[in-house]
Amino acid sequence: MKANQGTPVQIFGQVYRLRSDEDADRVRQIAEMVDQRMNRIADRGASADNYRIAVLAALELADELYALKDKHAELQSLVDAKSSSLAALLDKAVKEASK
After folding, report:
1. Which residues 6+ apart lie within 8 Å of 7 measured at CB?
2. From residue 79, how far is each of 61, 67, 72, 83 by CA, in Å?
């Protein structure tokens, strides 16, 4: 069995070989997202320091992640409420049908 040599990606002008259990296309998509974010931050003139740009990109992506988690929790709560409501209606219908 051949060892995982990693997927070559380029992020902010640097080439990395990323090893992951994920599909290579997925790894490339994620790397492209990070690369685009770092380039967008650099284009805004935020900083010439690559490390600072990487940290700002990580913070922006983490903020998006938390916003999505909050939205997911909100939607899950709505789904749970609707499911409970439907279950109650079904229970009522079954009881009425069995009379």
Report:
1. 17, 18, 19, 20, 24, 27, 28
2. 26, 18, 10, 6
pTM (2 d.p.): 0.76
Task: For strands 14-18 and 7-11, give the pairing.
Answer: antiparallel
* Tens-binned pLDDT, residue by residue, of the chain (99 aa): 345 789 999 999 999 999 999 999 999 999 999 999 999 999 998 667 999 999 999 999 999 999 999 999 999 999 999 999 999 999 999 998 887
Give the type of residue at 62: A
Q: What is the DSSP letter of 45?
A: T
- Domain layout of the chain by residue ranges: 7-97
Task: Identify the bridge partners of residue 8 per DSSP, sorted by sequence position.
Answer: 17
Q: Are 7 and 28 in contact (CB under 8 A)?
A: yes
Are the beta carbons of 53 and 47 closer than 8 angstroms? yes
Residue 18 belongs to what H/E stretch? Answer: strand 14-18
